[in-house]
Amino acid sequence: MNDEAFDDAAAERALGELVRPGARIAIADACGMPYVLAGPLSRVAARTGGVRLVLGWVPGPAPELDPDAFADIRTVVGGPGARALVESGAAHRVPARLSALPALLAGPLRPDLVLATVVEHADGYRFGAESSWMRGLAEDGVPVAAVVARHAPHAERGAPLPDVTVLGEVDGTPFTVGTPPPTEADQRIAEAVATLVPAGARIQFGPGRLATALVAALGVAVHVDSGLLADPVVDLAERGLLLGTPSALALHGSRRLYDWADGLGRAGHGIVRPVEYTHDISRLSSDPGPLIALNTALEIDGSGQVNVEGVAGSAAGMIGGHPDFAAAAARGPGLSVIALPASHRGRPTLVEHLGGPVTTPSHDVDVVVTERGTADLRGLGRRERERALAALWSGAVGANE
């Protein structure tokens, strides 16, 4: 969110009064990340010394963020904008599922200050396109220094923030994310997944081509209970297949999504909520309606273990809410679904040994879907799971297809 009218020098002076030597500063999550503060914060940190930085989900590059200005950089989520920092060694990627972030940020990584984007309501300031882990910190007494975004969506559900120092105003909208059209393989996968979704279910899906294809393939009305909420939810609403008000910790999409969410928020139906709510495994597994968790993967091994974080040392992905939603769906009346193409760049996505960490364990995977068919792993032993997955990748799915 860059803005030519933003007073960079004034923000730097204000931050200079707030940031102390050795302080830990957290920069807010997702598409509402205050990119205009990256430069001022870097310059203040370089002068102050010993400043430590915590990053959440970074959706796009932040070229004005100078890693050399900080004594330590940790990312608790990741994202495309953090990839270069992690792969260069400038930042440490802390392995943590999203439901664990409140404890992590209240304990060993507790910040002294949160930098964020807020929107102004008649009764005070709230976060706009995201709530995530920042809401809990703010309500626990961590001060918030923020830019006020005039055209960000009023999408957060919650009370006014208790302690906000305004560093300036911006006209721009949150960071926008485009999605390429689904491939033929995406469409075949989505059609198979759609048959697993009963009317009235709660569905979880992330951004990307597959989510677009899934929503297009659905023919029943559903609730949406998710993490990052992307544009397909608007398609669902326009088709008359969205039940109730969606729930997510952040918006992640285009201006179309932000405008739609803003309309709901101004009507008193805020969408974005704190991670303590959105990723509460007990709530997710017990709320009315089965939870169908649709997650993707970079690769899966013969036992059903899933890697979404990267292969061969890359920092392509993140843990995020993948294990939270998979566990919640597997323990409740719903389904934990892993959907992925059978190959990527000419290589099978079913591997003997994962090329990265285990993000989600095999016992939290119920069903695996590729463009070749479906493997239902529920109730199978280890050897049986291996045979079912091998048959899926060979195209010999038989009764599971």
From TrEMBL:
UniProt-listed Pfam families: AcetylCoA_hyd_C
InterPro entries: AcetylCoA_hyd_C, AcetylCoA_hyd_C_sf, ActCoA_hydro, NagB/RpiA_transferase-like
Residue ranges annotated for the Acetyl-CoA hydrolase/transferase C-terminal domain, each copy included: 253-390
Domain of life from the UniProt record: Bacteria
Name by which UniProt lists this protein: Acetyl-CoA hydrolase/transferase C-terminal domain-containing protein
Organism field: Pseudonocardia parietis
